[in-house]
Amino acid sequence: MRIPNDAPIGVIDSGVGGLTVVKEMLQFLPAETIIYIGDDARCPYGPRSVEEVKEFTMEMATALAEMGVKMLVVACNTATAVTLDILREQLPFPVLGVIEPGARAAAHVSTTGKIAVLGTVGTIKSKAYEYAISAISTDADIIPLACPEFVPLVESGQYKQMNIQHIMKRSLQPIAHLEFDTAILGCTHYPLLHDQIQEQLPVGVNIVSSAYETVRDVENTLSGLDLANISGERKAPIFYTTGQLEVFESIAIDWLGIRSPDVRHIVLGKPGCQ
Questions:
Q1: Which of 184, 180, 254 lies closest to 213, judged by CA?
Q2: Could you read off the pLDDT of 87-136 as tens digits, one per residue?
Q3: Counting beta carbons within 10 angstroms of the beta carbon of residue 176, is it exposed (0 to 12), middle (13 to 18) or buried (19 or more)?
Q4: Three-class secondary structure of residue 27 per DSSP
Q5: Residue 187 a catalytic site member
Q6: Which of 21, 103, 140, 190 is 20 to 30 Å from 212 at the Cα level?
């Protein structure tokens, strides 16, 4: 059965980080409707076991499949690293991740081939970015760094506070004196900390986020599979969270500029949402 062109695109993340991808989608895919699920109650995924990440990600994907989405964007680097192939095998619609687009962008920007990858413990441990970048540029020199304190800063809404600089400095200190010209924000939460990260990196380092490149992949896939919405009637995005509505809504307003976002609560692993 053919998927309707005006069906929504589903986006999932361990929390609010995937809103950085949604922001690009709202700008560059003006005809597409978006349904988002953020698993804030069980965030972060980075320190969790592979089995837990698989289970939680599948729960979100299944919920969106039941809502009738035409495509799934896994806007979580940890979930992409662990579950992308499984999701593609089990779901009846296209599934895109954020690691390959981020690796492609970094390889294009870097002139020296020396690239730092900032990510969660799970993403760094998977070496997914190292594999993806090496597939594009065989002589690339990858410097991985896990930054486990970053996601909680974003999820708690502290990402705009000046008193987090000591956390940023401590987290990035291991690479502060190394030579590299490009840094990948290997977690979709991290763009909300872009300026604070930039301050702690060597002068002249280019920071790359996978969000824009991911949306380019979404656009190309929609076009290639004739799934783009040609009706021109986009409905307002719907956001589901397993966590606190007020916290999610506040970050959505701040980051997306939506005055009154439609934020709802969802219980994963069980039927029904509120």
A1: 184
A2: 999 999 999 999 999 999 999 999 999 999 999 999 999 999 999 999 99
A3: exposed
A4: helix
A5: yes
A6: 140
Instruction: Evaluate if pTM is beyond 0.70.
Output: yes
Residue 149: closest CA among 129, 121, 185: 121
The answer to whether residues 43 and 56 touch, using CB atoms and an 8 Å cutoff, is no
Average pLDDT of the chain to the nearest whole number: 92
| Residue 46 predicted with pLDDT over 50 | yes
Give pLDDT, residue 270: 56
Q: What DSSP line would sit under 29-66, residue for residue?
A: -TT--EEEEE-GGG---TTS-HHHHHHHHHHHHHHHHH
For the segment(s) 99-210, the CATH number from 3.30.365.10, 3.40.190.10, 3.30.420.10, 3.40.50.1860 is 3.40.50.1860
User: Active-site residue among 43, 147, 187, 273?
Assistant: 187
Residue 76 a catalytic site member: yes
Give the per-residue pLDDT at 274. 43
Q: Which CATH number fits the domain 9-97+212-265, given the four candidates 3.40.50.150, 3.90.1150.10, 3.40.50.1860, 3.40.50.720? A: 3.40.50.1860
> By three-state DSSP, how is residue 224 classified?
helix
Under 8 Å CB-to-CB from 86, ≥6 apart: which residues?
54, 58
Reduced to 3 states, what is the DSSP secondary structure of residue 199?
Answer: helix
Q: Which of 43, 76, 147, 273 is catalytic?
A: 76
Alpha helices in 110-244 (DSSP H): 121-126, 128-136, 150-155, 165-172, 194-200, 211-224
Residues 166-183, mean pLDDT to the nearest whole number: 94
- Cα(272)–Cα(62) distance, rounded to whole angstroms? 12
Q: Name which of 16-25, 101-110, 190-199, 226-235 the model is least confident about.
A: 226-235
